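Final report, Chapter 2: Outcomes

The project's central promise was a pipeline that accepts a single protein chain and returns its three-dimensional structure in a standardized token representation, suitable for archiving and comparison. That pipeline is now operational. To close this chapter, we reproduce one record exactly as it appears in the project archive, with the input sequence first and the structure output second.
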Amino acid sequence: MGKVAVKPCAVCGQMIRWQPKLAGCWERMRYCGPRCRRHSLDEVDRALEHAILGLLSCRPVGGTIIPAEAARLVADGGRWWRLVERAHWAVRRLVADDRLEVVTGAGDGVGAPLRVRLPRGLCALPSTAAV
């Protein structure tokens, strides 16, 4: 059995598997479904990605965070729980870009918190120094 082609959804980062019915449009396929097709990435999504990488850059090497920490930071204290799902989307996008790795929590089962960290040897945020 051959290797099945997969690629991440541009919005939620969920992996889309190639299927024969997608043969004619696989190259143009960017979204996993109608919900993601309707949701365009905005400044909140980019702020969540930046917050995740920023929080990890402040942790010791190998340190982890949960996506809710980034949601709290971006929401600035108010109604942060509404951003948790979008923080998980940001995590999946960053994992698909090889900028994060998922670390299973204690228990490794359903309900175990999602923890992420930087891959070894990777800086979290690009340098903003002018050249």
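Archive annotation: The helical segments are 34-38, 43-57, 67-75, 84-96.
This record, like all others produced under the grant, will remain available to the consortium after the project formally closes.
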